[in-house]
Amino acid sequence: MWNGSFAAGIAVACMAGSALAQQPVVVQSLACLGEEPFWRLDANRNTGTYSVLAAKGKREVVFRGSLQSLSFLSPSVMVWRGDSTHLPRETLVATLREEACRSTMAEGPPGTHRVILSLKAGEAITGCCTVRAAYDARTAPAATFAAKNPDDWARFLPDLLPAMNLCLTRSGGRAKWIARAAPASQKAASVRIVEADGQALDCTADLTGRGVTTIARVPAAAPTLPGAGNPLFYPVRDQAPMVSCGRLERVLGKNNAVQGYLHYDPC
Fold first, then answer.
1. Nearest to 198 by CA among 231, 176, 225
2. Residues 104-149: pLDDT tens digits?
3. What is the pLDDT of residues 163-174, one digit of tens each?
4. Are 18 and 53 contained in the same domain?
5. How many domains does the chain have?
6. Using CA atoms, how far apart are residues 227 and 180, in angstroms rounded to an integer?
7. Are 106 and 163 within one domain?
């Protein structure tokens, strides 16, 4: 099964300086809070969830919408606008202005933006938002495996991917990324998975992706595997990885479908 054709290839170009600046950083999510009444808006580039405490209890509405940035203004302004996914239809418009904003009821650092939110004509409420920006994964360059460095574990990724996906499934959905994968034999691959809490799992799976031989937790004192952590492999999820440094690449499969993301020189 193992194909040695992905052996040493052409060294990749330097990833520092101007090459990194070409990856656009865009707003990926916003979290807004307000009082009187107590309300919250959590939104990404496509979906927003608005919740408010009312006299009859908590009310929650899901919206489908989009974000528009007016970065030419100073301070910058952005508008998130969406329509509810249920009847009767509602339209939510949130206008965010970049400035330090502290809620009178919330602890911790101030928000990055002040927001004016409107759901009904003649009615508006205010609050504070924290905005997160990251690379636009949709425009990240596609990974070219034949051009990877000889010491880059990802150069064999097309052959390793079935085993990697199976190990991710067997890990119980707690995986944050894969730090390294490599051939363990002619028929199997070894995969180092890192969970959201920082703990790691070692998995050995068939290269066909049809069976796992072993999966076990890695002791905290275990040495770091050679080459582990650069790149990181992020599996495909509802939201692309939130990274704003290093280099992000898309891993494409059949019909150019995204199979995951590689993150080089992670923060």
1. 176
2. 766 778 899 999 999 988 889 999 999 999 999 989 999 999 999 9
3. 999 999 998 888
4. no
5. 2
6. 7
7. no
Tokens of 49: 């969830």
Residues comprising the chain, all counted: 267
pLDDT at 5 over 60: no
How many CB atoms lie under 10 A from the CB of residue 146?
Answer: 12
- Prediction pTM value: 0.75
Q: Distances in Å between the alpha carbon of 177 and those of 156, 194, 195, 220?
A: 17, 6, 7, 17
Q: How far apart are CA 211 and CA 204, in angstroms?
A: 9
Same domain, yes or no: 188 and 201: yes
Domain of 120, CATH number, reads 2.40.128
Same structural domain for residues 36 and 162? no
Decide: helix, strand or coil at residue 233.
strand
Same domain, 145 and 233: yes
Looking at residues 182-209, what average pLDDT do you find?
Answer: 95
